[in-house]
Design brief:
The chain is built from 18 helices and 10 strands. It is α/β, with parallel strands linked by helices. It folds into 2 domains: 186 residues, no CATH class; 216 residues, P-loop containing nucleotide triphosphate hydrolases (Rossmann fold, 3-Layer(aba) Sandwich). The strands form 2 sheets. The chain has a 6-stranded mixed sheet with strand order 6-7-8-4-9-10, with helices on both faces. A 4-stranded mixed sheet has the order 1-5-2-3, covered by helices on one side. Strand 6, helix 14 and strand 7 form a beta-alpha-beta unit. The longest helix has 27 residues.
Length: 442
């Protein structure tokens, strides 16, 4: 799956302003290395259906075997190891003579800083290797999925290094002469091996994090289908960042691949589409989704048209930026492989007449691409009416309850059909804007 920065921003996967985001919700990593690996994974999900299935099986295994995760490896362990091995180039000669003849007490007295650095570093290295050994032993368990088994066997192979037993055998009673010898050899011989182990551990940390997020949030693993079948079915899908969210059902397939949403501003259209986008992305990460059930075919990517930004430095207007984003979308739709396309209130940067003409032209063009799953929301009632007789389009709207006294209430309920709600003026009145503007200045 391929998703650009605009899509990740529109779906609030990574928040640049420090507010809550989806990544924080799924990040249960134990180390910074695991967190960095998880971030890269979110930015670059599996490229094929087969890779995604293997990864989902690995995440499912961790969801059912959280107790097997080694707790001896901490973030400070990896930080210390990086510092330890990065300083290895300053060691040019092995310890000998006076260094080896001094006992631990004298070493603490004459070389206090070096003594504690070596002892502390080697203890972290020992803990790391012990944790990796625990991971490698999982390979001998039953029903370990293939992807996870390959990663565990890589760890097991790395642990065949001749120094591993000696380093793991270090205790508080190990003499400094012995520590000094192991320190020299480890820093010269184990650096590349340890870095490869850290990379394997980080991948496992990222997979386990997605498993823990799935179980902690009560999410379900979706049924993944090959890309040859266009399908996106959800039962009780909800947005994971909203407290007490409304859940929605939706069915997309080859014969029903285009949904046109209507409803008043703030009625729930954008949040609904974001829930679909987040659910689709989480499914393609190999983890659970916030729904009761989901069936989804493998998608090449998710494309969003939601929060377009103008570019003052380039002299580009908001409308021009909208057109360019729509052009990028059209280029993606030329690909045969399926995408999930989420378009929210297109062409807000021009007048109502232009917006109607542009949106109508886009809808007509989208109907030529049945291999993709597409949702378009609009507050232009006339656009929906223009295509109301087209059997290729599904129509749904969000209900807004309005009283004769001018009050309104958003229910966030999704129904079949087309909405003609117009409440912009009522909102201006209720918020007191009209009253303030009509008051005489004192």
């Amino acid at each position: 799956m391929q998703n650009d920065k605009t899509t990740l921003r529109d779906l609030s996967i990574f928040a640049s302003d420090g507010s809550g985001d989806v990544f924080a919700l799924i990040d249960h990593t134990a180390t910074q290395a695991g967190r960095d690996m998880l971030r890269r994974h979110v930015q670059n999900p599996p490229a094929t259906y087969e890779q995604l299935k293997e990864l989902q099986d690995a995440v499912k295994f961790w969801a059912a075997h959280q107790h097997l995760w080694p707790t001896v490896i901490l973030n400070g362990t990896l930080v210390m190891l990086d510092k330890y091995f990065e300083s290895a180039d300053s060691i040019t000669t092995p310890p000998s003579g006076l260094t080896l003849s001094l006992n631990s007490f004298l070493q603490k007295f004459f070389n206090r800083q070096e003594y504690f650095f070596i002892q502390f570093s080697l203890s972290h290295l020992s803990d790391f290797l012990k944790g990796c050994t625990e991971l490698a032993n999982i390979a001998d368990s039953k029903d370990v999925p293939p992807l996870l088994l390959r990663e565990l066997n890589l760890i097991k192979d790395e642990l065949q290094h001749r120094l591993v037993p000696d380093v793991m055998g270090i205790t508080k009673q190990t003499k400094f002469a012995r520590l000094s010898q192991l320190n020299y050899r480890a820093r010269r011989e184990m650096k590349n091996m340890v870095y490869r182990l850290i990379a394997s551990y980080a991948r496992l940390d990222a997979w386990r994090s997605m498993a823990q997020a799935t179980t902690d949030n009560g999410w379900v693993f979706p049924e993944l289908l090959p890309e040859t079948t266009v399908c996106f079915e959800t039962t009780a899908l909800r947005h994971p960042l909203i407290n007490n969210p409304v859940a929605y059902d939706l069915t997309f397939d080859n014969s029903r691949n285009f949904l046109l949403l209507t409803g008043a501003n703030m009625s729930g259209k954008t949040t609904f589409m974001r829930a679909l986008g987040v659910g689709g992305l989480l499914a393609h990460l190999g983890m659970g989704v916030p729904a009761k059930a989901m069936r989804v075919s493998f998608l090449q990517g998710i494309i969003t048209n939601m929060q377009v930004e103008d570019n003052i430095l380039r002299g580009e207007s908001y409308f021009y930026a909208e057109v360019q984003r729509m052009k990028q979308t059209a280029e993606k739709l030329l690909q045969h492989k399926s995408h999930l396309v989420l378009m929210d209130e297109l062409f807000k940067g021009t007048n109502v007449h232009d917006a109607f003409e542009c949106t109508r032209a886009v809808v007509e063009g989208l109907l030529h691409h049945p291999n993709h799953l597409m949702i378009l929301s609009t507050h232009l009632y006339e656009v929906a009416q223009q295509f109301s007789d087209n059997s290729k389009i599904m129509f749904s709207y969000f209900v807004t309850n309005m009283s004769d006294t001018g009050n309104y209430k958003f229910t966030y309920e999704l129904r079949n059909g087309i909405s003609n709600d117009r409440i912009g003026y009522r909102i201006l009145q209720q918020e007191g804007v009209i009253r303030l503007l009509n008051e005489n200045s004192k």
